[in-house]
Amino acid sequence: MKIGLLQLPCGEDREENLRRAIEAAEAAADQGAQILCFQELFASRYFCQTEDARFFDWAEPVSGPAIARLRRLAARRKIALIAPFFERRAPGLCHNSAAVIDADGSLLGLYRKVHIPDDPQFHEKFYFAPGDLGFRAWRTRYGAIGVLICWDQWFPEAARLTAMAGAQILFCPAAIGWLPGEKEGEGRRFQEAWRTIQRAHAIANGCFLAAVNRVGFEPAPAGPEAMRAQESASRRGIEFWGSSFVAGPLGELLAEAPEDCPALLLAEADLSRIERVRAQWPFFRDRRPEAYKGLGRLFGESAGLSSGPLSGETSRREGGA
Predict the structure, then answer these.
(1) Active-site annotation holder among 10, 37, 40, 124
(2) Residue 203's domain spans which residues?
């Protein structure tokens, strides 16, 4: 089957962003894409660079007009879609979500981003409640898929649980890039770490992984009046690094987009390889769930480090040198 990823820049006009994304999806369908994924919050600029309650007006329910348009597109072109959007669940309660739409236009379900960052120019905790639907898989017409959104894709537990739910392909829509001054310092290492952790998920779980990022520089939106004087002195923004890719179950790159321009990325995924790879590298067979109970803790032991020696050390009282 053929995977399609849409790596696009976003402007200030949300209707224009949606129109361009639909046009790109039409082009992907013309080229044989069967499962297509948009980038995180694809219909708008990345507004989380600032904390501003005005942007809550951009949220809409899954029953809203944007997802309805995409469901019609999916049914007409017979493509499955992963559509990340700003979900309005209830007044004052929003999520960073993705609608999973099958090739007949039916809504298979929602994924709500679980791990919500709060970093410089990534102020997502202001806008989004953590997802409460868990890590899931959906069987589309063309294969079983799971979704992890941006910060989720750094957590091995999230990828493992999604694969254990039955996902053959992990789709990871993202909005990640360099803050001013980062690119010339640690920036390239950050970018390579992003690639490496996701390719490792494909290897550890014997599945395909498709990561789609936005591209281009987006200035930080002007904040409320009280903040504008401070912001105008040093205009901030994010240079999104594109580089969307598809990796196979041994972590091999099947296709990769450039870092500095829009792209429609297509890749063939032979899902029968999953069975063969897992037979050769049987990570699921050799898992020891009973040994992983410590993962239920946030970190270390509940009372911190014990007073005795660390593992592998010998204390002086026990005859060490």
Answers:
(1) 40
(2) 2-316
207 is catalytic: no
Residue 99 β-bridge partners? 83, 110
Tally Cβ neighbours within 10 Å of residue 134. 12
Question: Is 148 within a domain?
Answer: yes
* Residue 130 within a domain: yes
Best CA proximity match to 42, nearest among 169, 210, 215:
215
Query: Among this protein's residues, is 113 annotated catalytic?
Result: yes
Measure the CA–CA gap between 24 and 7, rounded to whole angstroms. 9
CATH number (domain holding residue 142): 3.60.110.10
The catalytic residue among 10, 37, 48, 150 is 150
Distance between CA 319 and CA 321 in Å, rounded?
7
What integer pLDDT is reported at residue 318 of this predicted model? 43
The tokens describing 78, both together, are 């017979």
pLDDT in tens, 151-170: 999 999 999 999 999 999 99
**How do residues 26-52 score in pLDDT, each as one tens digit?**
999 999 999 999 999 999 999 999 999
Whole-prediction pTM: 0.90
How many domains, in total, are found in the chain?
1
Tell me, yes or no, if 125 is annotated catalytic. Answer: no
Catalytic residue among 10, 113, 124, 239: 113
- In the predicted structure, residue 13 carries a pLDDT above the cut 90: yes
Residue 321 lies in a domain: no
